[in-house]
Amino acid sequence: MGRRLFKELERSYGFDEVAIVPGQVTINPELTSTKMTIGGLDFDIPILASAMDGAVSPRFATLMHEMGGLGVLNAEGLYTRYEDPYSTLEEIISMPKEEATRFLQKVYSQPIQDHLIGQRVEEIKSAGSICAVSFTPQNTKRMSPVAVEAGADIVVVQSTVTTARHMSTSYRGLIFSELIETLNVPVMVGNCVTYEVAQELMETGIDGILVGVGPGAACTTREVVGVGVPQVTATLECAAAREDYFRRTGRYVTVITDGGFRTGGDVCKAIVSGADAVMLGTPFAQAEEAPGRGFNWGMANAHPELPRGTRINVGTKGTLKQILYGPTTATDGTQNFVGALRVAMGMCGAYTIRDLHKARMVIAPSIKTEGKYFQMAQ
Amino acid sequence: MGRRLFKELERSYGFDEVAIVPGQVTINPELTSTKMTIGGLDFDIPILASAMDGAVSPRFATLMHEMGGLGVLNAEGLYTRYEDPYSTLEEIISMPKEEATRFLQKVYSQPIQDHLIGQRVEEIKSAGSICAVSFTPQNTKRMSPVAVEAGADIVVVQSTVTTARHMSTSYRGLIFSELIETLNVPVMVGNCVTYEVAQELMETGIDGILVGVGPGAACTTREVVGVGVPQVTATLECAAAREDYFRRTGRYVTVITDGGFRTGGDVCKAIVSGADAVMLGTPFAQAEEAPGRGFNWGMANAHPELPRGTRINVGTKGTLKQILYGPTTATDGTQNFVGALRVAMGMCGAYTIRDLHKARMVIAPSIKTEGKYFQMAQ
Amino acid sequence: MGRRLFKELERSYGFDEVAIVPGQVTINPELTSTKMTIGGLDFDIPILASAMDGAVSPRFATLMHEMGGLGVLNAEGLYTRYEDPYSTLEEIISMPKEEATRFLQKVYSQPIQDHLIGQRVEEIKSAGSICAVSFTPQNTKRMSPVAVEAGADIVVVQSTVTTARHMSTSYRGLIFSELIETLNVPVMVGNCVTYEVAQELMETGIDGILVGVGPGAACTTREVVGVGVPQVTATLECAAAREDYFRRTGRYVTVITDGGFRTGGDVCKAIVSGADAVMLGTPFAQAEEAPGRGFNWGMANAHPELPRGTRINVGTKGTLKQILYGPTTATDGTQNFVGALRVAMGMCGAYTIRDLHKARMVIAPSIKTEGKYFQMAQ
Amino acid sequence: MGRRLFKELERSYGFDEVAIVPGQVTINPELTSTKMTIGGLDFDIPILASAMDGAVSPRFATLMHEMGGLGVLNAEGLYTRYEDPYSTLEEIISMPKEEATRFLQKVYSQPIQDHLIGQRVEEIKSAGSICAVSFTPQNTKRMSPVAVEAGADIVVVQSTVTTARHMSTSYRGLIFSELIETLNVPVMVGNCVTYEVAQELMETGIDGILVGVGPGAACTTREVVGVGVPQVTATLECAAAREDYFRRTGRYVTVITDGGFRTGGDVCKAIVSGADAVMLGTPFAQAEEAPGRGFNWGMANAHPELPRGTRINVGTKGTLKQILYGPTTATDGTQNFVGALRVAMGMCGAYTIRDLHKARMVIAPSIKTEGKYFQMAQ
After folding, report:
1. CA distance D170 to chain A (A)
2. Number of structural domains, chain C?
3. Averaged confidence pLDDT in chain D
4. Residue C241 touches chain D, beta carbons under 8 Å
């Protein structure tokens, strides 16, 4: 009030700070549909596995397909740098904690081999699965055609922060509209967190948008460079852009909230925030079938000069099927993500994901459970 | 301000975030009355014990009646599934922690036996007590007449989230107005948390409404499915609906805040938020007379595919009489709930519960007591 | 927005949530005056010691006078119930923790002896000190004349919550205007926390008002009965009442923030909030000269049915002189309260307490110092 | 609403409470320029080392110059009080923790020797470095000419709180406009935190302004005297003053946020808040080349009567070069500050520090990383 400030700051919110309000009508979970579409391709569940080497191998991508979701293979990771990535995985896992970051920096300094890109795509396709591969903007133009030629169904262009207009001296900025025309498969791009960038990206003709910069604790982008937006607010902005774009053009772009999830409740909150789907890393790295066997790390962790995050021991929580569909005896929300989503949809009276978008949400800081407190609810 | 968002989020509050402001006039606690009414039945204190198997057995319901309150028996719990529920209770209590959830899932998969419903009601009635039994919406239509025939005075219809309009394939939605006509006893329904649902439920003719979805730490509904509203805000909304409904129809529906209580202070805050009564589980499970002998669990904890919460060791704090009326040497607010309520009423100048509704309340995050801090107040 | 709620809640603030903003002019601390007045009696420093048996004995009240402040003797505590209170003190101190509350309940069930009230007043007066004694509203009318007759200079009427209009069956409500006329010495009344009550109390003609209900951690009034207002907001309201009353009547009533202080910074914040003085318990119980020898407890802790708070081991931090004036090597703000106040006055360009009232304050949640964080400031 | 308060409180924010929002365009970090200017002197990086004896010795100032930044020498510290400050440093470091504050009080009671001021300046100048020395307002008038005569390039006038108008009995208030005329070198003044004081100071003709009062945990000014403003808000106010002053006069004064930094992210946030440069103490005390060899302390810590803060063991994190430029395997943001700044500039599409001023920032409380949580981001 009268106070002069250099700029105004708006409040933003993360998963831990909100809660979904039950609806005016409820429905039985069995009546709900969790279907989701990306660029004309249909999926039974709105859940993607992140392009992280500890979570998605070609074999894991196939399993995700069988479960109704989509596993994205990192086309610039171990699987395309090493003929035998599994022995390298073994080394990463067995490395002492204090040497992990240095070792990741070394492992990821090996060159990407084009023929391995094709080979990994073929491994996934030969199992009859939808195949999605991810590239960084720097390599997309040259490498993504290799993947599509080998049969890839979806190309993901992903970096910590991606915009429609990037300035660089070392490579000519990637033109998404040209890329889409060249590849002729659905293209997903990320990550972004604002209305404006989401809108510009959708204008280029892409089919999906990944939302999330620095949302989590395993990645330390927010600590190291101070950049990031909590996922609820990021999703609320990008979903607003999708709606406005849809209203104007009639084309519906899939919004996928990527990262920062811990529980099924977080997944539900992302969708109530406007996401059409979610992309998770760690919960899948916790599957028995995950290649990281209880360890996970991101590409930013291997940055040669400014690593962000490190290898973390996430443990193993159960089979992929249990994690997605239960049944479970875990009571902390880390298993049966689809079951949790259906229960939340039932409580909100939502038959479809699109219905769940209409649910009300409130700001409600999460309850800190302290040993001496015992609270009770039905 | 100018920022485009998919939806707006309102702030909500829990017990730990508010404090009651003393009134302009004070009265001696001895002058206060804590009387409360549900559907024409009068109670000396506005305190109910939750329909949880570790808290309310037929014997405990009788004790609650003697103390002036009301203990609700879970008509779909151990007491109606087992001829001898006490040996099953023994098994639950002695089960190692890591096997508790799995064992609860098994125990509660046994069928409910109609004749046991009648038998338990008769046990309570034969002691001369008001008898309240609770059912889930799925079983209410078929089972509640059995209980009423056996003498039940109040029927409670309760699930995590209940609305006046529920859609299902497996059973025809329960019509509350029909139920009320059939049973001809007071009906309480819950749980709900919003103005709209509270209003719709009151329109059906019910006598009491239970407020609370996912308020506590022992139940993990908010973690697992992301749904829940902190109790102060939930009560403020439902109480607003009660006032509007009362103003329009002249019929006063009892609003009962259910769950999330830890101290006498929380009980007082619920009433200042507009509740006519409160329903507690854990504090009663901590009574020496509780059947769970220091352990407690909710029905959601036994969900076969998506359990929420688990069996918790709540310990034993004193006799039911001490917990309700003191005297006590406990200084943390977990005993003498009625005494605490009377003291708060005195500080706010409230002769009745209805007067306490007029007290002022402020947002005041609770003080974290750290070892090195010593603060003092009169 | 459009949401219907039973009532609106305003945000309130405590010491840990605010920070003082330096002024536009600074002055050397040596130039500041910390003088304060209550009902025409002048004091060098605006600091009172609470009427707590572990902090203020007749001897300690004398020491406070010598230091320029005021120690209030509890006229309903050990010193007026026991001929030899010191052996009882000894017993309280040596009691095991788990028996402390029960023992306090017993100790304070002994009757107050009128002749001891007079005797304690005389002990203080014979040392040449200003003597202030405190009573509860129940006993004020009968007992306070005894104290005044013996020479008491100030009468304090104090209970957890005090209003100008109290309703009771067991004693006729105390009429402050009559009391003031009878006693003919300055009267201070508390505790209150709102504009309305402060205003009503000032209208009765009292000279000082004590602000604070449930502000601290040692007292658990806020936990047990849910009632309390954080001290910054409570002081902001009562100081607003003082200003309005002063503008209207020309009579300036001293506002004393009572309780919840931990550091010198808290004292400064209370004054910037509008207090003319502060009343501290625990920091004085930590003096080497304190009768509790490192232990402290309040009267509410001994409530026979609903104790709030308990005996706490506050330790011993230094001499009274060091606590008030330093010098010190303690760097956590718990010593040299007057030095801290002068430094803050200097930074805000305040020559007097009244000047410090004009300083700006911001909401700024306190910094949690974690082991791994090292931050630096000049 | 309608509530009467003595004054209004505005919300303020610190580094941990905000996050930078990525821009609409991104650029490669290699394209960014981190250049900064103070009073016509150019620096490659906008980073200064604080005038703290554990961080900046004459030798360290030279190293900072070689790295493109500026190390400020405390002209009233060990280096100007002792012919051989290194043996005193040794004593401070080896002192047991409980005696450290008392020993600092003793060490800094030795007089400042004028000839040592000249000698230290010459040590820095003889290495070809830009030399900045800092004085308190009390000593500036007499001592700063000695430093300038010996070749000092920049004079810093610094105390906890500095205003253009200071009242004192012991010395005539320092007139900055006169000082500037006398010295004829760039003058930086601090610390301040408000629009009004920043504006008044700029009017005197100074070239740089230091922002920050009580921002950190190592200094306990906020605890001890309650005074302080979190750095984001302090910087937002002072930067607003700089803009308004620049618009009116055409003269651009450098705003340097001083203190409270923990990570590279904090540095980026200060600049997005409007700072032209930052001044860090502890991160430099953690350099292998730092004179404190892993220990640090501020001048306020040695206050004879009211010490604020103490000697802290900050440890050693790497070489100065690694701390500023990496490469690093540390993933917590405490190394490669310049690299982090360039990455943030790239994400915000900022070619220059001035461009980064235009980035958007949101309020986003920092994520508490708890052991059991594993979150993932790209």
Report:
1. 35
2. 1
3. 91
4. yes
